[in-house]
Amino acid sequence: MTAALEAVERTALLTAALRAAETRRPDRLYADPYAEALAGDIGPGLLAEIRAATFPPHRERTVPSTPDYNAIRTRFFDDYLRRAARDPDTTQIVLAPAGMDCRARRFDWPGRVTWFEVDRPAVLAYKEERLKHLGEPRVAHRRVAVDLTAPDWESDLRAAGYDPGRPSTWLLEGLLYYIPEADAHRILERVAALCAPGSRIAADIVNRAALTLPGMRPLLEVFARWGCPWLFGTDEPEALFAGHGFAVRASQPGEEGAGFGRWPDPVVERRVTGVRRVFLVHGRRC
Ligand SMILES: C[S@@+](CC[C@H](N)C(=O)[O-])C[C@H]1O[C@@H](n2cnc3c(N)ncnc32)[C@H](O)[C@@H]1O
Fold first, then answer.
1. pLDDT tens, 29-66?
2. What is the CB < 6 Å shell around ligand 1?
3. What is the pLDDT of residues 117-154, one digit of tens each?
4. From the CA of 197, how far away is ligand 1's center (Å)?
5. Residue 59 Cα to ligand 1 middle (Å)
6. Domain parsing of the chain, residue ranges
7. How many angstroms separate the alpha carbon of residue 271 from the centre of ligand 1?
8. Sequence-ordered list of residues with C-beta below 8 angstroms from that of 195, at least 6 positions apart, any chain
9. What is the CATH number of domain 68-285?
C-alpha cells in the first residue's frame, strides 16, 4: 500500500516517524501513541536520511534540527488547537493537510466540534487502513480526500458538513514549502473564502534564504532527491497572510512560547537578512 504513495505524500510518514521518535524520548514534548504504526516500514528510513543530512558526523550542522523543529511545531500546534477548542464559538477544525496527524485521537475535544481531515486520497486511505484496529477518533470526524490545488475541493469539504458561514479553525502544517508560489497563494485565497470573520488560521512556512543558502543544501537535496523539493518561502509571512485577509503573528522556534526548551540554535532578529528561518504563523480572519 505504501508503494502507492507519491513523494510528497510519503512526507506524512516522515512526520509520523519523527513523532514516534519524539514519543520514545523521556523528555518528550508530547506523546503520539499512533505514530509508530503510521510511520510503517517507510517512515524510519526517510527519517534516517534526514538525520544523516542534518547531523553529518565530521562537519558542523548547518541545517535546522528537524527532530527538534518537529517536536516544537507539533507541541505548538497541539496547544494552538486545544486553546482554540476552548472557545465556545469553535465548532469546526480543519487540518489541511492532515497527513498522519492523530490529534483527533490523542486529545478529547468538546462535543460541539466537528473535525475535518483534508489530504490526498492515497494518504487518507493509507491512514484509515493503519488505524482501523486502533480505536475511533474522540470527536465527530470527517475525511475529505482531495488535492488542495485541484479545482473545487471546496465542494467536497462542504459536502462533508463544513459550513463556511460559521467560524472555523484551520491548520496548514507541513504544507506550504512543497507548493509552488502561485498555488500557495491560491490555496490561501480559497481558505480565506471559506473562513467566516474571526476564524483562526495557523501554518508553518520557511523564509526565502532557507530555499537557497548553501548551508541548507544537505537538507534541500534530500527532499529534491525524493521528488518533493521545497518550492516556496517568504520573509514576510505577516504580509503574505494579510494579502489574503488574515491578521497573523509569526513566531520563530526558540522565541518565548515557541521554544519549550528544545530549540538548539540562536534566534536571530527579523531585521537580519541572509539567515534561514522557519515561522509558526497564527492569527485570525479579518
Ligand atoms: C509533511 S506532511 C504533514 C502532514 C500533517 N499536517 C502533519 O503535520 O502530520 C505533508 C502532507 O501534505 C500533503 N500534501 C502535499 N501537497 C498536497 C496537496 N496539493 N493537496 C493535499 N495534500 C497535500 C501530503 O499528502 C502530506 O500528507
1. 999 999 999 999 999 999 999 999 999 999 999 999 99
2. 8-9, 11-12, 15, 97-101, 119-120, 123, 147-149, 173-175, 178
3. 999 999 999 999 999 999 999 999 999 999 999 999 99
4. 26
5. 31
6. 68-285
7. 31
8. 164, 167, 168, 170, 201, 245, 246, 285
9. 3.40.50.150
